[in-house]
Every structure is written in structure tokens, then in C-alpha cells.
Specification:
The complex is a heterodimer of chains A (497) and B (96). Chain A has 497 residues and is an alpha/beta fold. Helix content of chain A is 40%, strand content 12%. Chain A is built from 17 helices and eleven strands. Chain A has an eleven-stranded mixed sheet, sandwiched between helices. In chain A, helix 2 runs antiparallel to helix 3. About 2% of the residues of chain A have low confidence. Chain B has 96 residues and is mainly α. Chain B has two domains: 34 residues, no CATH class; 50 residues, no CATH class. Chain B is built from three helices and no strands. About 40% of the residues of chain B have low confidence. Classes of the chains: A alpha/beta (497), B mainly alpha (96).
Chain lengths: 497, 96
């Protein structure tokens, strides 16, 4: 059920906002024990629905008024805990709302609760959460991806209409791919990160995960724009000016019959031997669909992608080690008991409060910033990111968008996560380059494995081409036979909308 | 051997307390991770005009762009900007 249909039902009084909210809360109560997507269910959701109903009754509904949404648990909310799935922030209640939360509240959207994630958004499995492990609705023995795995799994399982996640190196697109939904990482600067707990400030971006690209666009329109609290954010008119300067082909009308004149690049480095055969076939099939619709599709090479994974991990870990220094047992959250002195207070608090993956990244970041290694690692990584950015810019002089898989494989089993952290990091190869270059990128389902697991097509655009890539995805989605997870049939027996 | 830094000192710099057993496990993980990170040592990309997501990308006439940011960028080319809340900067500094 997409947002547009729910909007129609609410506005035509087929269902009230309270009834819709009760429907989703009932689903969460019954089915989330299988999925483990929600860390906290909002006890004020029905009050918010009543308020939304008054707005609908007054004839003033906004696009998201009364629509039940989920929020990743790194987005600050005054009326719910914000834990980042970490013991460090257990029971933490922020004194302010994130900018995106405030914007959605202004539309009277209904928040159903906070969604599970990898601790401090570091991970690709949603198994590093301190509180619970989230399961993939398509196969509960498999991971939902991460770090926004709770958001993707909740949307996929029909536990909320849509959700917000955050993407530092792929944390929206990879779980969207694993869970068979659409996830969009906006251009860096499109959405304010004020109130999104910082992981790597030059890469973090908040974005939507929804049932389709059109719903992602609705959410993006609601949360995008300049915010005085985030100096990297843009006003819409500034954004348009930049976009028009960079590209003038984004106004091409995209529908299944008129993609003539559109030129798409297939990224050679992301279709190599490290990509599963079923994934490669599904992505090439999607590329063929675009060709049949009139687009020209060619192979394009971005050699700097070979170094994107180490560059990403060095930059993001260096920034994380600085950002997470604020968690010291004094200002926020967890504090160790009876420390002997101040230094011990900090070291033991961090030892108790952080999980293993977070500790690993902090150590890597400290290492990369050490005198003597700084130029060899951090500065080299920054220069590689610059080279990658320039290669993308050159590609976008020829191509309107780039196609690739969102992940080298479909969702893998929970008990088959590699022990070697480097192997797990290498699985991020498809998604880490767009954040390094500040580009918009999305994942939309394009096929299924023989075991019925979703495969995601990644579409990456030039800066500020968010609407353009969402339009490209939308036109593919209209022809693609998207499947619901197996649990959907059981859920329908209990009543649908 | 890829970890050139004393793991105990690294843990101390990171202000995280580890048991001896945890340190051994972390050292093993870091060995594997640094083997991956070392793959960039042999490459020599040219200095990029705009390396990273910096406010350099903002339109020239963007109001609110402070001279403070430009100064900070000039002084600290590796600066990572965290401007969420209270206007503070979080800068990965070289750890001596």
C-alpha cells in the first residue's frame, strides 16, 4: 500500500487517521516479534493521529498528514528515546527534534516508533544493535542489510507506510535492496542533518525508504531544504540554480514510452567477478528494459572505484573517532560506576557503552589520524575521494545516470556473516562511492534470486539530480512485477486495508 | 604485519579500556583491516581541486556562507565539518 493510496483513503474518509494508525500498531504488535524492526513503539501515535484527523476534517491536509511513518533511531525525537541502538545512549531522550522530524510533525505525519539499526550506523547487517537483531521479511534466517535495516524491514513487512533512514556509505540503499523496497540517498546538502546523531559528517545524509520511488519523492519533498542549524544544507532555489547549471537534461519526461535521448552508463567495475551471477543478470535485464524504452545504455569505467572501499573506511572512521569523542560518560548517556579517576571514567564508560564494531572503527580512525600515518592514510583517502568525484563528473558529461547493483549479492544468512571484518567491508563496494562524491543514489528492486530474495538496481545521478533518478526508477517500477515478502499473505488473512 | 602502531597505545589514544584478551582480538581484526587499507598506499592520485563534500560546492552567491568556513578550510585541509547544532566544528586532528 503506497502513500498516494493511503492519502486518497484518508481524504475521502474511507478510513480515519486513527483507524489507519491502529491498523499499523496492531500489525506491529502481532508481526514485529518475527522481524525485530522496532526498538520503541510510540505511545503518543494515536494522539498524533487525532490531531492529523482534525487537519483533514478542516480541509487542510498536507501530503503526509495522517500517514504512519517509522524513524531510524539515530534521529532525535523529544517524545521517544533516541539510542542509536547503543548501550551508550540507553534511555536517552533528546531535548530537541531533528530538523526532519520537525518538518514531518509540521505536516502532522504520525510516527509509529523508532527503528532498529547497526550501532551508531556502523554496519551492513543490523546485527550490531545492542538491543536486538532485525530479520529480513523475505527470509527470517537472513539479514535485512544495514545500517537502516529496521527501516527497510519495517517498510518491506508493511509495518509502516514509509520510513526515514540515514546513509553514510550505503545504509539506505543496501538494506532497501536486501528487503525489496526503494531507498534513496539524497544529494549531500539536500536534507538537514541537524538532530541526526553524527557518524561521519562529510558523508552522513538522511533519506527515505518506501514502497516505491514516488513515495520516496513525497518524503524527500517534505524534509528537504535549507536549515540554519546545518550549514551544509541548501535552500530549494539555490539547489535548482546549481542543478540547472550542472545539467539541463533533467527535464526529460520519463515514462515507459519516451526515454529517447536518455543516455545511461553501466558501471563496469561494479559488474565484475565479485558480483553474484543472479545479481549481474538482474541488473543487465533492467538495463535492457531501459534500452527497450528508448534509452542508450553503454558501459562506463570509473577506475578510482577500485580504491573506494579503503578510502571510505579511512575517511568515515577518522570522522567517527572525532564525532564519538563526545561520548565520555560526562555529557551523554551511559556512565561507568565508581571510576578511580577521570581518565578511567572515560575509558571504562566507552568500553562498556560501545559495541565491538564501533570500537573497531574508533581505533581505525585514531590510527589513520596518527602523526606519521596521517598523510599515508587519511590524506591519501581524501585525495582518492577527489579523484572519484572528478571521474563521476566526467561520466555525467556524457551520461544522464549510472546503473549498477546496489550490493554484490542478495541478503546473506545471519549465521554466515564473515568473521574477517575486511571481507564484510568489501561488500560495501557498490554503495560507498556515491557518498564520497556527494551524489544522489537510490536502490529499487529489479529482480529476485532463485530463492526469492530481492535484488536491487542502483541508479546514481549528478548532484541535485534527485528528482531525475527518482523519475527513472519510477518509470522502471511501473513495469516491474514487485513481490511482497511471504509473510504478507499471512498478514492479509488477518485483514488488509 | 600491517599494524605499525602499538595496539595498547592505539586503545589508549582512543580512550577505550580493553582486557588483554580483547586487545589480542582487536589486534587480529586490525591486521585484516589494515591489509585492506594498505591497498591505497601504492596509488598516487593527483591533489583534487575539491576533495570531498565541502561547502566549496555551494553556489557563489549563497548567503550565510561565512568567511569562518573558508578560513577553516584553508587552515585545515583535512577538516571534517560538523555543523549540526551549536555551530561547532569537529575536526579530525593529527594525533601526536
Amino acid at each position: 500500500m503506497n502513500i498516494r493510496k493511503l492519502r486518497g483513503m484518508l481524504d475521502s474518509r474511507v478510513i480515519s487517521a486513527a483507524e489507519l494508525t491502529k491498523f499499523f500498531l496492531s500489525r506491529i504488535e502481532t508481526w514485529d516479534q518475527n522481524i525485530g524492526a522496532f526498538l520503541h513503539v510510540n505511545e503518543h501515535a494515536l494522539e498524533a493521529a487525532e490531531k492529523a484527523q482534525k487537519r483533514i476534517d478542516a480541509g487542510d491536509p498536507q501530503p503526509l498528514t495522517g500517514i504512519p511513518l517509522g524513524l531510524k533511531d539515530n534521529l532525535c525525537t523529544t517524545d521517544m528515546p533516541t539510542t542509536c541502538a547503543s548501550k551508550m545512549l540507553e534511555h536517552y531522550r533528546p531535548p530537541y527534534d531533528a530538523a526532519v522530524v520537525a518538518k514531518l510533525r509540521a505536516q502532522d505525519a504520525v510516527f509509529l516508533g523508532k527503528l532498529n539499526m547497526d550501532e551508531f550506523a556502523m554496519g551492513a547487517t543490523t546485527q550490531t544493535s545492542y538491543y536486538q537483531k532485525t530479520r529480513n521479511p523475505f527470509d527470517e534466517s537472513r539479514v535485512p542489510g544495514g545500517s537502516s535495516g529496521g527501516s527497510a524491514a519495517a517498510v518491506s513487512a508493511g509495518l509502516c507506510a514509509a520510513a526515514l533512514g540515514s546513509d553514510t556509505g550505503g545504509s539506505i540503499r543496501q538494506p532497501a535492496s536486501f528487503c525489496g523496497v526503494t531507498g534513496h540517498r539524497p544529494t549531500y546538502g539536500a536534507v538537514s542533518r541537524y538532530g541526526c546523531v553524527a557518524f561521519a559528517s562529510s558523508l552522513d545524509q538522511i533519506g527515505p525508504i518506501a514502497a516505491c520511488a514516488a513515495d520516496c519523492e513525497l518524503l524527500l519533498q517534505a524534509v528537504a531544504g535549507r536549515d540554519e542549524h546545518d550549514q551544509t544544507s541548501f535552500r530549494a532555489d539555490q539547489r535548482n540554480r546549481v542543478r540547472n547549471r550542472v545539467r539541463n537534461r533533467s527535464e526529460i519526461k520519463t515514462n515507459a514510452a519516451s526515454l529517447q535521448g536518455v543516455k545511461l552508463g553501466l558501471i563496469e567495475e561494479l559488474l565484475g567477478e565479485n558480483v553474484a551471477e543472479e545479481t549481474r543478470r538482474a541488473v543487465l535485464h533492467a538495463a535492457a528494459w531501459y534500452e527497450n524504452a528508448g534509452a542508450v545504455v553503454e558501459t562506463v569505467s570509473l577506475p578510482a572505484l577500485d580504491y573506494a572501499v579503503p578510502a571510505y573506511y579511512l575517511i568515515s572512521s577518522a570522522e567517527a573517532s572525532a564525532n564519538l569523542s563526545r561520548f565520555d560518560g560526562v555529557r551523554y548517556g551511559h556512565r561507568t560506576e565508581k571510576p578511580a579517576h577521570y581518565e578511567e571514567l572515560i575509558a571504562k564508560t566507552r568500553a562498556e557503552g560501545f559495541g565491538w564494531e564501533v570500537k573497531r572503527r574508533v581505533l581505525l580512525g585514531s590510527y589513520a589520524l596518527c602523526s606519521g600515518y596521517y598523510d599515508d592514510y587519511y590524506m591519501k583517502a581524501v585525495r582518492l575521494a577527489g579523484a572519484l568525484r572528478e571521474q563521476y563528473a566526467r561520466a555525467f558529461e556524457t551520461y544522464d545516470a549510472l546503473l549498477s547493483p546496489a550490493s554484490p549479492t542478495a541478503a546473506f544468512p545471519k549465521d554466515n556473516i564473515p568473521d574477517d571484518p575486511a571481507q564484510l567491508y568489501l561488500a560495501d563496494v557498490c554503495t560507498v562511492s556515491a557518498p564520497l562524491a556527494g551524489l544522489p543514489s537510490l536502490s529499487t528492486p529489479c529482480g529476485y534470486t532463485a530463492k526469492g530474495l530481492p535484488i536491487g538496481l542502483m541508479i546514481t545521478g549528478a548532484r541535485w539530480a534527485d528528482h531525475w533518478i527518482l523519475s527513472l526508477a519510477d518509470c522502471f517500477e511501473q513495469s516491474f512485477d514487485r513481490r511482497d515478502p511471504p509473510m504478507a499473505a499471512e498478514m492479509q488473512k488477518e485483514g488488509g486495508l | 604485519m600491517h599494524v605499525h602502531y602499538d595496539i595498547e597505545k592505539l586503545a589508549s589514544l582512543s580512550k577505550i579500556d580493553f582486557s588483554a584478551e580483547e586487545l589480542r582480538a582487536m589486534e587480529k581484526d586490525m591486521e585484516s583491516i589494515m591489509a585492506l587499507m594498505d591497498s591505497i598506499k601504492g596509488v598516487n592520485p593527483p591533489p583534487a581541486a575539491n576533495p570531498g563534500n565541502r561547502p566549496d560546492d555551494r553556489p557563489d552567491d549563497c548567503p550565510g556562507e561565512s568567511a569562518r568556513l573558508s578560513e577553516l578550510r584553508a587552515d585545515t585541509p583535512a577538516a571534517s565539518l560538523d555543523l549540526r547544532g551549536r555551530g561547532e566544528f569537529i575536526i579530525p586532528r593529527i594525533i601526536e
